[in-house]
Amino acid sequence: MSLPVLVINPNSNDEVTASIDRALDPLRSNDAPPIRCITLKDGPFGIESQRDADVAAVCVGAAVEEQVDNAAAIVIACYSDPGLGAAREITSKPVFGIAETGLATAIMLGGRVGVVSILKKSVDRHWSYARALGLDRRIVADLPVNLSVAELADEASVASKMLDVGRRLRDDHNANVIVLGCAGMARYRERMEAELEISVIDPTQAAVAAALSALRLEYRGERRTNGS
To answer: What is the pLDDT of residue 228?
Structure first.
């Protein structure tokens, strides 16, 4: 069997990992590398602040070092892309961060990108990262649902809040494509896209799809050194 695309959930919440895993089913096929999702037990339960992201980055680096020989490509399934630079120092295998890939995918599908965040304090962090990527000018708004990562699992109450924020992005900010700004939001993508009638990007799906394409086309990842 070929080596898998390894999807790393940098938080320690197994429910988030299970949700991510289910959302990746459409990308699984007999003629593609398998997709394996793991939870980092030493990571924060939810990555909701810069401090959480910094802690998670260390955990991601350690996990990549441990797992790299057993993976064909790596996806870091947190919208802060914690440890992305370190992972690319460790290996020349393709490594994808879901925020970077999700935004790039959204730009290809629409010129006005809206982002759904979990909490208000996440928004500034997202804008800072988008500026670092040079993609902030393509984002029309980043709005929070004001829920923790753990609270995203309550589908009965969360779906309406997700849709409400999606409508505000579409109607008040003229977004024509939406990116879900947390891996734990994956379960809401299909319903949001159907009801909002615009493209809704689950960034983990986007990153895994990019990883599978990179492997099929035999692209190499960007191996960075400390001096680059």
So the answer is: 47
Look at the alpha carbons of 82, 55, 9, 136 in this order and tell me if their dihedral is positive or negative.
negative
Structurally, how many domains does the chain consist of? 2
User: Considering the entire predicted model, what is its pTM?
Assistant: 0.93
Other residues' Cβ atoms within 10 Å of the Cβ of residue 139: 21
Residue 63 in domain: yes
Which distant-in-sequence residues (6+ apart) come within 8 Å of 216 by Cβ? 32
Count the Cβ atoms, other than its own, within 10 Å of residue 178: 29
Q: Which residues of 36-66 are buried (b: 16+ CB within 10 A; e: fewer)?
A: bbbbbeebbebbbeeebbebbbebbbebbee
Per-residue pLDDT tens digits for 136-162: 999 999 999 999 998 998 888 899 999
Query: Is pLDDT at 220 greater than 90 in this prediction?
Result: no
Residues 83 and 137 in one domain: no
Tokens 């790039």, located at residue: 104
The CATH number of whichever domain residue 57 belongs to comes to: 3.40.50.12500
Domain that includes residue 50, residue range: 5-97+205-216
Same domain, 91 and 127: no
pLDDT surpasses 80 at 221: no
121-146 average pLDDT score: 96
- Domain identity same for 92 and 147: no
Listed in sequence order, the residues at least 6 apart from 92 whose beta carbon sits closer than 8 Å to its beta carbon are 220, 221, 222, 223
